[in-house]
Amino acid sequence: MRFRASIQNVGTFAKFTASLASLGPVAWVRFSEDEVRFTVIPDQGTQVWAVLSLDTIFDVDHYHIESAADNAINLEVPLVPLQRALKSALSATSASIRLTKKDSIPVLSLTIVTASLGTTHSGPFGGGPSDEFGFGENGPTSDKERETIVTQDVPVRVLSLDNVDGIHEPRCREPDVHIFLPPLLQLKSISDRFTKLAMASKGGAGGAGGTASSVGPRLEMAANMHGCLKLSIRTDAMNISSVWTGLSNPDLDPTVVEGGEEGVAEHPSTRMRQLGSADGRSDEGWAEVRIDGKDWGKVMSVGRLEGRVIACFCHRHALILYVYLPNDEEGRDESVLTRVNQLNLKLSDGGHSINKATTEAHGKHSCHNDLHARDNRSPMNVAHQETSPENVYLKIRAARERS
């Protein structure tokens, strides 16, 4: 079993690992000949299923892997140590990673090469003050780069095929709504504000003699097929909602949808497109999920990757976020066609393309506040707060366009 590779995008790798570390302590990492998979399945909270093409992180010309399992290696990797090691490599001139053993313990060994300028004197007796021609009294001087090599070891556990055979990406029903999200940092700022308000409200109720619930604040997210997204928080003391309009809904590609044009016509999102309105005022056509406010704030940390995000809403069942990492190479876009579970989104030119969505994704944003004291506890609101939130799945893709 052998693995070694040269890292060509240290910054992307570091940001990616930092995002995963906020969602779970360890990741199942699968290296293969054509892709790298990162899977985070915490005891509670959002699951992450990430698939990256090799050139997203590594130099494919200096990527070598060998194993008896069809040249695939499965590892359990602690994310915080890996993040720290990559952070120390941000200013490196080169960085490489390999699987090895230290004291019989398997480790991912990160070799970091940095360069610094140092002044050297080539005269036989040392240097002195320079004259007008740049020579010292005893010889010429020059600036020369000095290389410093640092090695960071991250202990890992090698997983056998028996350990990972039972791990499969969850399958959900066809989404009712799919939409490009606004910038995640903007969405995170508002989500965190709503969560803090809900926690403060709940804390105040507990201080007045009430019993504080162990269930965290629940955010409500809803979207329609007319470019509208709504984020809400409801407690006994407040009802706040924030609405975005003018966002983009990707089109389905009939060439890959089962049933072709007929399959697109019968798809739940097509039926939802017949309901609701573009101003977000209609009560019809919304697909809604409830999410844990604290966990959602961690999920929004993927905003540091600066990728485009498609949210797929399965009404009151699950929320699936697909993060498409940007490609640095000129003339190459994100994945042209991506299969989202059984939802096929056409992300090429024409219709609502990724490039068009870039200008439309910000949309228009408004906030509606309904802060008022409620003398009587609403049974509907109490039941809504105490139920479990829907599942949230974060799926990160960085597939390159293939000829």
UniProtKB/TrEMBL annotation:
Source domain of life: Eukaryota
Family label: Belongs to the HUS1 family.
Keywords: Nucleus
Pfam families to which the protein is assigned, alphabetical: Hus1
Protein name from the UniProt record: Checkpoint protein
Annotated stretches, region: Disordered: 121-143, 261-280
Annotated compartments: Nucleus
